[in-house]
Amino acid sequence: MKKITVVGAGYVGLSNALLLAKGNLVKLIDNDEKKVNLLIKKISPIDDKLVQEYLDNKNIKINFELNNKQAYKNRDFIIICVPTNYNTNTNNFDTSHVEASLDEISKENVNATIIIKSTVPVGFTKNVSKKYEKNKIIFSPEFLREGSALQDNLYPSRIIVGEKNDKAREYGAMMSAAVLKKDIPIEYIGSTEAEAVKLFSNTYLAMRVAFFNELDTYAMVHDLNTHEIIKGVSLDPRIGNYYNNPSFGYGGYCLPKDSKQLLANYNNVPNNLIKATVEANYTRKEFIADLVISQKPKCVGIYRLAMKNGSDNIKESSVQGVMKRIKAKGIEVIVYEPLIKEKLFFGSKLITDLEEFKSKSTIILANRISNEIHDASNKILTRDLFKEN
Fold first, then answer.
1. Catalytic residues
2. Which end of the chain is more exposed for a tag (fewer CB within 10 A), N or C?
3. Which domains does the chain have, with CATH numbers?
4. What is the pLDDT of residues 313-327, one digit of tens each?
Protein backbone atom coordinates (compact mmCIF):
# COMPACT_ATOMS: atom_id res chain seq x y z
CA MET A 1 0.00 0.00 0.00
CA LYS A 2 1.62 3.25 -1.21
CA LYS A 3 1.17 6.78 0.06
CA ILE A 4 0.16 8.93 -2.90
CA THR A 5 -0.68 12.60 -3.39
CA VAL A 6 -2.45 13.64 -6.57
CA VAL A 7 -2.20 17.32 -7.50
CA GLY A 8 -5.22 18.64 -9.41
CA ALA A 9 -8.86 17.50 -9.22
CA GLY A 10 -9.79 17.74 -12.88
CA TYR A 11 -10.66 14.82 -15.16
CA VAL A 12 -7.17 13.33 -15.03
CA GLY A 13 -6.41 13.95 -11.37
CA LEU A 14 -9.76 12.82 -9.97
CA SER A 15 -9.93 9.67 -12.09
CA ASN A 16 -6.34 8.71 -11.17
CA ALA A 17 -6.95 9.37 -7.48
CA LEU A 18 -10.06 7.18 -7.44
CA LEU A 19 -8.33 4.47 -9.46
CA LEU A 20 -5.42 4.25 -7.02
CA ALA A 21 -7.45 4.74 -3.82
CA LYS A 22 -8.69 1.14 -3.74
CA GLY A 23 -5.30 -0.25 -2.81
CA ASN A 24 -3.38 2.78 -1.56
CA LEU A 25 -3.59 5.78 0.78
CA VAL A 26 -4.40 8.73 -1.46
CA LYS A 27 -4.65 12.48 -0.95
CA LEU A 28 -6.16 14.60 -3.72
CA ILE A 29 -5.34 18.31 -3.49
CA ASP A 30 -6.50 21.31 -5.51
CA ASN A 31 -6.43 25.11 -5.29
CA ASP A 32 -10.16 25.37 -6.03
CA GLU A 33 -11.92 25.53 -2.64
CA LYS A 34 -15.36 25.01 -4.18
CA LYS A 35 -14.21 21.84 -5.95
CA VAL A 36 -12.55 20.46 -2.81
CA ASN A 37 -15.65 21.14 -0.70
CA LEU A 38 -17.82 19.27 -3.21
CA LEU A 39 -15.47 16.28 -3.06
CA ILE A 40 -15.46 16.29 0.74
CA LYS A 41 -19.25 16.02 0.51
CA LYS A 42 -18.80 13.12 -1.96
CA ILE A 43 -20.17 15.16 -4.87
CA SER A 44 -18.34 14.90 -8.18
CA PRO A 45 -17.28 18.28 -9.61
CA ILE A 46 -17.14 16.76 -13.11
CA ASP A 47 -19.87 15.13 -15.18
CA ASP A 48 -18.92 11.45 -14.92
CA LYS A 49 -21.39 8.86 -13.59
CA LEU A 50 -18.73 6.34 -12.67
CA VAL A 51 -16.81 8.97 -10.68
CA GLN A 52 -19.93 9.61 -8.60
CA GLU A 53 -20.39 5.86 -8.03
CA TYR A 54 -16.82 5.59 -6.74
CA LEU A 55 -17.21 8.62 -4.49
CA ASP A 56 -20.24 6.91 -2.93
CA ASN A 57 -18.08 3.87 -2.09
CA LYS A 58 -17.05 4.27 1.56
CA ASN A 59 -14.25 1.69 1.23
CA ILE A 60 -12.10 4.03 -0.82
CA LYS A 61 -9.17 5.44 1.16
CA ILE A 62 -8.92 9.01 -0.08
CA ASN A 63 -8.70 12.46 1.49
CA PHE A 64 -9.59 15.69 -0.31
CA GLU A 65 -7.69 18.81 0.72
CA LEU A 66 -6.83 22.31 -0.42
CA ASN A 67 -3.29 22.53 -1.78
CA ASN A 68 -0.85 22.56 1.12
CA LYS A 69 2.80 21.71 1.77
CA GLN A 70 1.94 18.98 4.28
CA ALA A 71 0.29 16.96 1.50
CA TYR A 72 3.74 16.40 -0.07
CA LYS A 73 5.49 15.10 3.01
CA ASN A 74 6.12 11.37 3.53
CA ARG A 75 4.59 10.37 0.19
CA ASP A 76 5.93 7.61 -2.05
CA PHE A 77 4.43 9.01 -5.26
CA ILE A 78 3.22 12.51 -6.14
CA ILE A 79 1.19 12.68 -9.35
CA ILE A 80 0.90 16.07 -11.06
CA CYS A 81 -2.34 16.55 -13.01
CA VAL A 82 -2.58 20.33 -13.41
CA PRO A 83 -3.68 22.21 -16.55
CA THR A 84 -1.23 23.20 -19.28
CA ASN A 85 -3.17 25.52 -21.56
CA TYR A 86 -1.74 26.49 -24.93
CA ASN A 87 -0.36 30.04 -25.05
CA THR A 88 -0.84 31.50 -28.54
CA ASN A 89 1.69 34.27 -27.81
CA THR A 90 4.55 31.87 -27.06
CA ASN A 91 3.32 29.00 -29.28
CA ASN A 92 3.83 26.67 -26.35
CA PHE A 93 2.01 25.04 -23.48
CA ASP A 94 1.91 27.14 -20.33
CA THR A 95 3.73 24.79 -17.96
CA SER A 96 3.86 27.28 -15.07
CA HIS A 97 1.43 25.23 -12.91
CA VAL A 98 3.53 22.08 -13.40
CA GLU A 99 6.73 23.96 -12.56
CA ALA A 100 5.14 25.55 -9.47
CA SER A 101 4.15 22.07 -8.25
CA LEU A 102 7.67 20.74 -8.88
CA ASP A 103 9.11 23.68 -6.89
CA GLU A 104 6.89 22.97 -3.89
CA ILE A 105 7.43 19.21 -3.97
CA SER A 106 11.24 19.47 -4.26
CA LYS A 107 11.34 21.60 -1.10
CA GLU A 108 9.16 19.24 0.94
CA ASN A 109 10.01 15.72 -0.23
CA VAL A 110 13.16 14.79 -2.17
CA ASN A 111 12.42 11.07 -1.76
CA ALA A 112 9.11 11.05 -3.60
CA THR A 113 8.85 9.81 -7.16
CA ILE A 114 7.07 12.49 -9.19
CA ILE A 115 4.74 11.44 -12.01
CA ILE A 116 3.80 14.14 -14.51
CA LYS A 117 0.40 13.44 -16.08
CA SER A 118 -0.10 16.96 -17.42
CA THR A 119 0.53 17.16 -21.16
CA VAL A 120 3.83 18.95 -21.78
CA PRO A 121 6.04 19.93 -24.75
CA VAL A 122 8.42 17.30 -26.10
CA GLY A 123 11.63 17.48 -24.04
CA PHE A 124 10.07 19.12 -20.96
CA THR A 125 10.61 16.24 -18.51
CA LYS A 126 14.26 15.81 -19.44
CA ASN A 127 14.87 19.52 -18.82
CA VAL A 128 13.13 19.68 -15.43
CA SER A 129 14.84 16.46 -14.32
CA LYS A 130 18.14 18.31 -14.54
CA LYS A 131 16.80 21.11 -12.34
CA TYR A 132 15.21 18.82 -9.74
CA GLU A 133 17.81 16.08 -9.84
CA LYS A 134 17.15 14.83 -6.30
CA ASN A 135 13.64 13.69 -7.23
CA LYS A 136 12.97 10.96 -9.76
CA ILE A 137 10.61 12.52 -12.33
CA ILE A 138 8.62 10.37 -14.74
CA PHE A 139 6.24 11.43 -17.50
CA SER A 140 3.28 9.09 -17.97
CA PRO A 141 0.62 10.29 -20.44
CA GLU A 142 -3.12 9.84 -20.09
CA PHE A 143 -5.53 8.89 -22.87
CA LEU A 144 -8.91 9.78 -21.39
CA ARG A 145 -12.23 10.91 -22.81
CA GLU A 146 -14.28 13.61 -21.12
CA GLY A 147 -17.31 12.08 -19.45
CA SER A 148 -15.71 8.64 -19.17
CA ALA A 149 -12.33 9.44 -17.61
CA LEU A 150 -12.54 6.88 -14.80
CA GLN A 151 -13.86 4.20 -17.16
CA ASP A 152 -10.88 4.79 -19.46
CA ASN A 153 -8.53 4.61 -16.49
CA LEU A 154 -10.02 1.34 -15.27
CA TYR A 155 -9.92 -0.20 -18.75
CA PRO A 156 -6.95 1.46 -20.48
CA SER A 157 -5.72 0.56 -23.96
CA ARG A 158 -2.11 0.80 -22.75
CA ILE A 159 0.07 2.22 -20.00
CA ILE A 160 2.99 4.36 -21.14
CA VAL A 161 5.73 5.07 -18.59
CA GLY A 162 8.37 7.56 -19.63
CA GLU A 163 11.34 6.06 -17.82
CA LYS A 164 13.04 2.65 -17.53
CA ASN A 165 14.39 2.60 -13.97
CA ASP A 166 13.19 0.69 -10.90
CA LYS A 167 10.85 3.48 -9.77
CA ALA A 168 9.24 3.54 -13.19
CA ARG A 169 8.59 -0.20 -13.01
CA GLU A 170 7.24 0.18 -9.48
CA TYR A 171 4.82 2.82 -10.73
CA GLY A 172 3.87 0.69 -13.76
CA ALA A 173 3.19 -2.31 -11.50
CA MET A 174 1.06 -0.14 -9.19
CA MET A 175 -1.02 1.12 -12.13
CA SER A 176 -1.34 -2.36 -13.59
CA ALA A 177 -2.60 -3.70 -10.25
CA ALA A 178 -5.18 -0.91 -9.97
CA VAL A 179 -6.87 -1.31 -13.36
CA LEU A 180 -9.67 -3.82 -13.95
CA LYS A 181 -8.68 -4.80 -17.46
CA LYS A 182 -6.21 -7.66 -17.56
CA ASP A 183 -3.06 -8.06 -19.68
CA ILE A 184 -2.64 -4.35 -20.35
CA PRO A 185 0.45 -3.64 -22.45
CA ILE A 186 2.93 -1.53 -20.48
CA GLU A 187 5.60 0.31 -22.42
CA TYR A 188 8.67 1.63 -20.59
CA ILE A 189 10.24 4.20 -22.88
CA GLY A 190 12.22 7.45 -22.67
CA SER A 191 10.48 10.48 -21.18
CA THR A 192 10.82 12.49 -24.40
CA GLU A 193 9.43 9.60 -26.43
CA ALA A 194 6.49 9.32 -24.00
CA GLU A 195 5.76 13.03 -24.43
CA ALA A 196 5.80 12.52 -28.20
CA VAL A 197 3.43 9.55 -27.90
CA LYS A 198 0.85 11.78 -26.22
CA LEU A 199 1.05 14.60 -28.76
CA PHE A 200 1.17 12.35 -31.82
CA SER A 201 -1.76 10.25 -30.54
CA ASN A 202 -4.02 13.25 -30.06
CA THR A 203 -2.90 14.90 -33.30
CA TYR A 204 -3.70 11.71 -35.20
CA LEU A 205 -7.20 11.75 -33.70
CA ALA A 206 -7.55 15.43 -34.64
CA MET A 207 -6.41 14.56 -38.17
CA ARG A 208 -9.02 11.80 -38.38
CA VAL A 209 -11.77 14.19 -37.28
CA ALA A 210 -10.55 16.74 -39.81
CA PHE A 211 -10.52 14.12 -42.57
CA PHE A 212 -14.15 13.11 -42.10
CA ASN A 213 -15.16 16.74 -41.73
CA GLU A 214 -13.52 17.56 -45.06
CA LEU A 215 -15.22 14.54 -46.59
CA ASP A 216 -18.50 15.98 -45.31
CA THR A 217 -17.68 19.44 -46.68
CA TYR A 218 -17.04 17.95 -50.12
CA ALA A 219 -20.29 15.99 -50.05
CA MET A 220 -22.30 19.05 -48.97
CA VAL A 221 -20.83 21.25 -51.69
CA HIS A 222 -21.56 18.60 -54.36
CA ASP A 223 -24.96 17.61 -52.91
CA LEU A 224 -23.86 14.06 -52.08
CA ASN A 225 -24.99 11.82 -49.23
CA THR A 226 -22.26 12.06 -46.58
CA HIS A 227 -23.73 9.23 -44.50
CA GLU A 228 -23.49 6.75 -47.37
CA ILE A 229 -19.94 7.79 -48.29
CA ILE A 230 -18.62 7.53 -44.73
CA LYS A 231 -20.33 4.18 -44.20
CA GLY A 232 -18.75 2.81 -47.37
CA VAL A 233 -15.30 4.19 -46.54
CA SER A 234 -15.43 2.94 -42.94
CA LEU A 235 -16.25 -0.66 -43.91
CA ASP A 236 -12.60 -0.96 -44.94
CA PRO A 237 -11.09 -2.71 -41.88
CA ARG A 238 -7.91 -0.66 -42.30
CA ILE A 239 -9.98 2.48 -41.69
CA GLY A 240 -12.67 1.19 -39.33
CA ASN A 241 -16.17 2.32 -38.40
CA TYR A 242 -15.30 4.61 -35.50
CA TYR A 243 -14.36 8.22 -34.80
CA ASN A 244 -15.96 9.19 -38.11
CA ASN A 245 -19.02 11.25 -37.18
CA PRO A 246 -18.82 14.74 -38.74
CA SER A 247 -18.89 17.82 -36.53
CA PHE A 248 -18.29 21.54 -36.64
CA GLY A 249 -14.60 20.82 -36.01
CA TYR A 250 -12.45 19.02 -33.45
CA GLY A 251 -12.54 20.63 -30.05
CA GLY A 252 -12.53 19.89 -26.35
CA TYR A 253 -9.60 20.49 -24.03
CA CYS A 254 -6.94 18.26 -25.60
CA LEU A 255 -7.03 17.97 -29.39
CA PRO A 256 -6.77 21.68 -30.32
CA LYS A 257 -3.94 22.46 -27.90
CA ASP A 258 -2.02 19.22 -28.40
CA SER A 259 -2.02 19.50 -32.20
CA LYS A 260 -0.83 23.13 -31.96
CA GLN A 261 1.91 22.14 -29.51
CA LEU A 262 3.10 19.33 -31.76
CA LEU A 263 3.23 21.73 -34.71
CA ALA A 264 5.29 24.15 -32.58
CA ASN A 265 7.62 21.28 -31.62
CA TYR A 266 8.32 20.62 -35.29
CA ASN A 267 10.12 23.99 -35.62
CA ASN A 268 12.32 23.47 -38.68
CA VAL A 269 11.34 19.83 -39.20
CA PRO A 270 9.67 19.36 -42.62
CA ASN A 271 5.96 18.64 -42.33
CA ASN A 272 2.70 18.97 -44.22
CA LEU A 273 0.15 16.84 -42.36
CA ILE A 274 0.59 18.36 -38.90
CA LYS A 275 0.22 21.91 -40.21
CA ALA A 276 -2.72 20.88 -42.41
CA THR A 277 -4.47 19.24 -39.43
CA VAL A 278 -4.35 22.49 -37.45
CA GLU A 279 -5.42 24.62 -40.43
CA ALA A 280 -8.20 22.21 -41.46
CA ASN A 281 -10.04 22.97 -38.23
CA TYR A 282 -10.13 26.69 -38.99
CA THR A 283 -11.34 25.95 -42.52
CA ARG A 284 -14.15 23.72 -41.31
CA LYS A 285 -15.43 26.33 -38.86
CA GLU A 286 -15.30 28.98 -41.60
CA PHE A 287 -17.33 26.68 -43.88
CA ILE A 288 -20.04 26.06 -41.27
CA ALA A 289 -20.21 29.76 -40.39
CA ASP A 290 -20.48 30.79 -44.06
CA LEU A 291 -23.26 28.24 -44.52
CA VAL A 292 -25.23 29.89 -41.72
CA ILE A 293 -24.47 33.46 -42.81
CA SER A 294 -25.57 32.73 -46.39
CA GLN A 295 -29.10 32.00 -45.11
CA LYS A 296 -29.30 35.52 -43.60
CA PRO A 297 -30.91 34.44 -40.32
CA LYS A 298 -32.30 37.01 -37.95
CA CYS A 299 -31.20 35.09 -34.85
CA VAL A 300 -28.91 32.05 -34.55
CA GLY A 301 -29.37 29.77 -31.55
CA ILE A 302 -26.40 27.77 -30.24
CA TYR A 303 -27.67 24.56 -28.68
CA ARG A 304 -25.09 23.55 -26.07
CA LEU A 305 -21.51 24.77 -25.91
CA ALA A 306 -20.08 21.48 -24.64
CA MET A 307 -18.17 19.59 -27.30
CA LYS A 308 -20.19 16.40 -26.99
CA ASN A 309 -23.07 14.77 -25.15
CA GLY A 310 -22.26 13.72 -21.60
CA SER A 311 -19.51 16.31 -21.15
CA ASP A 312 -19.49 19.38 -18.93
CA ASN A 313 -16.40 20.89 -20.54
CA ILE A 314 -16.98 23.82 -22.89
CA LYS A 315 -13.31 24.73 -23.39
CA GLU A 316 -12.30 25.07 -27.04
CA SER A 317 -15.57 23.59 -28.32
CA SER A 318 -15.73 24.07 -32.08
CA VAL A 319 -19.17 25.70 -32.06
CA GLN A 320 -17.67 28.68 -30.23
CA GLY A 321 -15.41 29.36 -33.22
CA VAL A 322 -18.43 29.20 -35.53
CA MET A 323 -20.37 31.45 -33.19
CA LYS A 324 -17.67 34.17 -33.22
CA ARG A 325 -17.61 34.26 -37.02
CA ILE A 326 -21.41 34.62 -37.20
CA LYS A 327 -21.45 37.40 -34.60
CA ALA A 328 -18.75 39.26 -36.55
CA LYS A 329 -21.31 39.67 -39.34
CA GLY A 330 -23.70 41.45 -36.98
CA ILE A 331 -26.12 38.53 -36.64
CA GLU A 332 -27.75 38.07 -33.24
CA VAL A 333 -26.63 34.91 -31.44
CA ILE A 334 -28.33 33.36 -28.42
CA VAL A 335 -27.15 30.36 -26.40
CA TYR A 336 -28.84 27.50 -24.59
CA GLU A 337 -26.37 25.98 -22.14
CA PRO A 338 -27.63 24.76 -18.73
CA LEU A 339 -24.03 24.44 -17.49
CA ILE A 340 -23.63 28.23 -17.41
CA LYS A 341 -25.50 30.25 -14.79
CA GLU A 342 -24.55 33.73 -16.06
CA LYS A 343 -26.85 35.83 -18.26
CA LEU A 344 -24.30 36.40 -21.03
CA PHE A 345 -21.64 34.30 -22.77
CA PHE A 346 -19.09 36.51 -24.55
CA GLY A 347 -21.80 39.09 -25.17
CA SER A 348 -24.47 36.62 -26.30
CA LYS A 349 -27.64 36.18 -24.28
CA LEU A 350 -28.04 32.89 -22.44
CA ILE A 351 -31.59 31.54 -22.66
CA THR A 352 -32.45 29.18 -19.82
CA ASP A 353 -35.90 28.22 -21.11
CA LEU A 354 -35.57 25.68 -23.92
CA GLU A 355 -38.94 26.47 -25.49
CA GLU A 356 -38.14 30.17 -25.55
CA PHE A 357 -34.76 29.37 -27.10
CA LYS A 358 -36.32 27.28 -29.88
CA SER A 359 -38.96 29.93 -30.53
CA LYS A 360 -36.50 32.84 -30.81
CA SER A 361 -33.97 31.01 -33.01
CA THR A 362 -34.22 31.32 -36.78
CA ILE A 363 -31.52 28.62 -37.10
CA ILE A 364 -30.35 26.30 -34.33
CA LEU A 365 -26.72 25.15 -34.48
CA ALA A 366 -26.26 21.79 -32.74
CA ASN A 367 -22.84 20.15 -32.90
CA ARG A 368 -24.43 17.08 -31.33
CA ILE A 369 -28.17 16.40 -31.56
CA SER A 370 -30.54 15.59 -28.69
CA ASN A 371 -34.12 14.35 -28.38
CA GLU A 372 -35.13 17.52 -26.55
CA ILE A 373 -34.81 19.61 -29.74
CA HIS A 374 -36.27 17.13 -32.24
CA ASP A 375 -39.49 19.12 -32.43
CA ALA A 376 -37.48 22.01 -33.91
CA SER A 377 -35.83 19.85 -36.59
CA ASN A 378 -36.88 22.27 -39.35
CA LYS A 379 -34.58 24.88 -37.77
CA ILE A 380 -31.63 22.67 -36.85
CA LEU A 381 -28.26 22.73 -38.60
CA THR A 382 -26.13 19.83 -37.46
CA ARG A 383 -23.59 17.45 -38.99
CA ASP A 384 -24.24 14.79 -36.35
CA LEU A 385 -25.08 12.03 -38.85
CA PHE A 386 -24.46 8.97 -36.69
CA LYS A 387 -25.89 10.28 -33.40
CA GLU A 388 -22.72 9.55 -31.48
CA ASN A 389 -19.82 11.53 -30.07
1. 254
2. N
3. 3-189 (3.40.50.720), 198-381 (3.40.50.720)
4. 677 789 999 999 999
